[in-house]
């Protein structure tokens, strides 16, 4: 079974849109998301546009702030501080990656943790680690929703996560662990990856290597979540970290690329923005 992230994202966004309509009457304004793009990398610009479109679709107001690639770290932090202090802004997101002269962690830590819709701020990561309320990163949250939607049992299962980034690998492993899966985290230095992946009931691949996971690396009936998105070096077509044609016949459920995890990341970003807004309004 192919799990459509597109369809589930649509459901999540429709649910948000319904809530926004009633909150707007109750609180006098809609949620407001602010997205900062530094430089003009076409892929990042594309993601920022998709986030703006999703915000519009659910009834949020949104602002896209385009800053030059040669902006200093200091100037960028000052801009973020202005948004932190602006009561009409509920969510702030700085699109990654950033130019090399800007230290990513300095920028992430400058964002008010209550407006950190990405869930990347140390305070939100701390909340995830301690299992206390906080903003959870969008892609990991979306992956759990996809597994739940597909009816995949998580508790007691062996989940293998390939990748250990702060954006996906680490937090998704923690969320799976909190749902009582037994979790193995593998990465680019793991020897004999296939020997590990073949044990997985749930396999999450977030390593950014096109078609790394072949059919013989997957257990029959496994739930396979493909977070990768790149271009097949042979055909130039968009593909994931999983060789879909080889793995799909063996998998119990699998996410496609595109149309799997990607739309869920954006839907969860909308959910996080709504949460930041309601927390502020209900304070
Ligand atoms: N670049 C790639 N993924 C993400 C994400 O989830 N958030 C931000 N801010 N930048 C990204």
Topology:
Blueprint lengths: L4 H23 L4 E7 L3 H16 L3 E7 L5 H13 L5 E4 L9 H7 L11 H8 L8 H12 L8 E5 L6 H10 L3 E5 L6 H5 L4 E4 L17 E4 L3 E2 L6 E2 L4 H4 L5 E2 L6 H21 L2
Parallel strand pairs: 1-2, 1-3, 4-5, 4-6, 6-7, 7-10
Antiparallel strand pairs: 8-9
The chain binds guanine (GUN).
What can you tell me about this protein's structure?
It is a single chain. With 283 residues, the protein is α/β, with parallel strands linked by helices. It has a 5-stranded parallel β-sheet. A 3-stranded parallel β-sheet has the order 2-1-3, sandwiched between helices. β1, α2 and β2 form a beta-alpha-beta unit. Bound molecules: guanine (GUN). The site of guanine has 9 residues, from β3 and α6.
């Amino acid at each position: 079974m192919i799990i459509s992230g597109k369809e589930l994202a649509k459901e999540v966004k429709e649910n948000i849109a319904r809530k926004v309509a009633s909150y707007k009457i109750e609180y006098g304004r809609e949620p407001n998301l602010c997205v900062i793009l530094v430089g003009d990398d076409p892929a990042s610009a594309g993601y920022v546009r998709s986030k703006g479109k999703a915000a519009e679709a659910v009834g949020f107001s949104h602002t896209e702030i385009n800053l030059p690639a040669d902006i200093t770290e200091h100037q960028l932090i000052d801009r973020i501080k202005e948004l932190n202090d602006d009561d009409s802004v509920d969510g702030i997101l700085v699109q990654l990656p950033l130019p090399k002269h800007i230290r990513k962690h300095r920028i992430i830590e400058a964002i008010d943790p209550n407006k950190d819709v990405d869930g990347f701020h140390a305070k939100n990561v701390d909340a995830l680690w301690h299992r206390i309320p906080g903003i959870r990163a969008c892609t990991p949250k979306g992956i759990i929703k996809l597994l739940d939607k597909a009816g995949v049992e998580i508790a007691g299962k062996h989940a293998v996560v390939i990748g250990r980034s702060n954006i996906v690998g680490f937090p998704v492993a923690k969320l799976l662990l909190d749902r009582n899966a037994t979790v193995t985290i593998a990465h680019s230095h793991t020897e004999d990856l296939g020997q590990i992946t073949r044990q997985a009931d749930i396999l999450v691949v977030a390593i950014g290597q096109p078609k790394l996971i072949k059919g013989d690396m997957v257990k029959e009936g496994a739930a396979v979540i493909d977070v990768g998105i790149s271009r097949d070096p042979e055909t130039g077509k968009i593909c994931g970290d999983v060789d879909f044609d080889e793995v799909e016949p063996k998998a119990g459920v699998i996410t496609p690329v595109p149309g799997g995890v990607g739309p869920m990341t954006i839907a969860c970003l909308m959910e996080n923005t709504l949460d930041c807004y309601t927390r502020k309004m209900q304070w």
